[in-house]
Design a protein that fits this description.
Elements: E1 2-8, H1 32-40, H2 43-47, H3 57-63, E2 66-74, H4 80-85, E3 91-95, E4 104-112, H5 117-127, E5 132-137, H6 145-157, E6 164-166, E7 180-183, H7 184-193, H8 204-208, E8 214-216, H9 221-233, H10 248-268, H11 288-297
Parallel strand pairs: 1-2, 1-5, 2-4, 6-8
Antiparallel strand pairs: 3-4, 5-7, 6-7
Length: 318
Amino acid sequence: MKMGIIIQARVGSTRLPNKVLLPLPRISNDTVLHWVVDRCCQVPMLMFQGGGWGDDAPQVLSRLSGFTVIVATTTLKEDDAIVDSMSERLTKATTVSNDSPAFQSGVAVFRGDSEDVLSRYYHGAKEHNLDIVIRVTSDCPFIDPSLIAEGAKQFYNTYDDLDYMSNNLVREYPHGLDFEIMTFEALERAHNNGAHHQREHVTTYIRESEQFRKKQVDKTDGVAKILQKIETQGQVDPSNIRVTIDNHDDYLLLLRCISTLNKMDSITSTNTNTPKHKHRWLGSNIHLESLVNLFNQQPHLQLINQNNEKRSVRNRNG
């Protein structure tokens, strides 16, 4: 069995052209897309850290043959820029566990239809022999790999009884921390049967149809406490936090979040009683808990992009 994350990405955007190639932070060689890819690459390791499978972990590792992060862009000439930007990020397969050299992880690029994003996902998953497909969009640089890893574990454990799982069937998380998980069979059925209007956002057919077994990702105790932290203090509803990039104001907010959290992190890291975040990825100090804390302490940050259109969670950069 093989699992993978497919990240849809293109430079075309009517509101903010080339948004996924904007530098993050502003003076940096890393782009919005680099952040998404780098954070998604942490998922396979996080899946096997901190337990969750107990004594079954060796059996899971033996059944999962690999994990691939795929940037799915278009065949348009303009999207050569996406491919070029990924040239240094592409990797050969590497092991993610010393206990299971057969389990490998890597990054790849797939090019497909510019308008039919569902088709692009299907053919990308098919080319890489994925059994479980995780959907992430390229305009969510703060996507939390720990959340995806937890969802992936839950989906794996219910694989025989489930077609689709997401953390946004019910809106509980900030916009920009969304992910969806599906079997390849469900993706294939959507590809074969989806109408024209259901193909741009990939999972519309699955979400609208009653024939699929669907489930919201269960909140762990830690996640539930994080989400309740804002609700109980009555500042900001976490579902109203927007950390995805669609307009220039969104980009400004992302830059402010990075700057503020880096300053806060540099202060708290001088306190020997405050452990640093143990995982290493771009913006490793930016995750669900730090975002919840930040917007709870500084709710005025929402004013930066408050006038932006509240887009559907499925309407992302294709």
